[in-house]
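Page 42, continued from yesterday. The earlier attempt failed because a stray header line got pasted into the input along with the sequence. Redoing it now with the clean sequence only.
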Amino acid sequence: MTTLCAAPVKVLIVEDYKLTRVGLRCALNNYEGIDVINEAQSAEEALNMIEQEKPDVVIMDLGLPNMNGLEATIKIMEKFNKKLSETNNDIKVIILTSHDREEEIVASLGAGATGYCMKDIDPDTLADVIQQVNKGACWLDPNVCKTALKLFPKPENTQLIYKQETKDDKGHLTEREQEVLKLLVKGKSNTEIASELIVSVHTAKAHVCSILQKLCVDDRVQAAVKAIKEGLVDDKEV
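This time it went through. Structure tokens are written below.
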């Protein structure tokens, strides 16, 4: 019986600095399941490429000349995703930037981006984010999570908070998983976790998967947010 392999995620990189574009392309093309189909140095060039090449994921810089990345993201959502909505095959946008101000994070997510990464992100993590976002997940860089959390209003009714705090979620995690969760909150990749705990990358990945399942979350950023909000890790250790 022939095994059908999933098609690689088609990625378009939009970045005005050539060195960054080339570096991203070289790094990402090393990962199985990811195919960087093209690069654009401006939003206008990217929109033309999207029309022709129909990528699955667009990695978008915010600080582009003329039309910025935020405007380009809005145009992608309005122009292309309306056409694709019936096939449930929308183009996903991941912002890759050095900007971490509240207004830029909020504006990007409001424009339709489902990923927000800082440019110092580990390549392993970025490759993982591309795969997750392509499957429909949202992802926020741990370095901007605390900024994003400040935007949520405090609830008037604290009854739910009381119930959450008395749930023994932390007790369901093994001692090793609690160590992994602390590193996950710090934004460590599976490779970095493996190195720090002196285990294989496969073992580190297995621990992360177990944590996601036990905390009933879909991805690493949701686990980090839950850990911080519900006190599953000590703030002083993060």
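Notes: The domain at 9-149 is CATH 3.40.50.2300 (Rossmann fold).
Reminder to self: strip header lines before submitting.
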